[in-house]
Amino acid sequence: MYPIICALLVCLSVLTSAADFRDCGSQVGKYTSISISDCEDSDSECILTKGTNVTIKITFNTDEPVNVVKAVVHGILTGVPIPFPIAQPNACNNPETGITCPLKKGGPFTYTKTFPILSQYPKVKVEVKWELQNEKNQDIVCIMIPARIE
Length: 150
Prior knowledge:
InterPro entries: Ig_E-set (IPR014756), ML_dom (IPR003172), ML_Npc2-like (IPR033916), NPC2-like (IPR039670)
Oligomer: single chain
Family: Belongs to the NPC2 family.
Subcellular location: Secreted
Largest sheet: 6 strands, mixed
Domain MD-2-related lipid-recognition: 21-147
Protein name: Protein NPC2 homolog
C-alpha cells in the first residue's frame, strides 16, 4: 500500500509542477534557470497577456568561448514554427540584455529580454521556442516554453 501512495504522490507532483520548460537542442551550453514575468511556479503554462510587456531571464553556462549571442524566437502553432521578430536580437550589442561579449567558457551568464505582447495577437495556445545562438548559428541554449496568449 505504501509504494502505491508514494507513486501517486510522485504523479501528482509532476502534474502540478511549474511550467514545463524543456531543452530543445542546446549544443554549446545549458540553461540553469528561466524566469518569465507573470509566470508562477504553479502555472502549467505561461499566460502572456495582450497589451503588456513580458520579461524573460535565462541563466546559462557555455561549453566553449562564444563571440556572438543572438536571440532567435519562434511561436510553434499546430507544429508549424512562425518567426517572432524581436527588437535587437544581437544580445552583445544591447546593454539591456546583461550580456557582454565575448563570453568565456563557463558562466553563469544571465540574458534578459523584455518584449511586448501586442493587442492584435490572437488568443491562442502556443509553444515558444527561444534560442540563443552563437556566431556559428549553433544553439547555446534552446528552450521550449508552453504559453497561452490572452
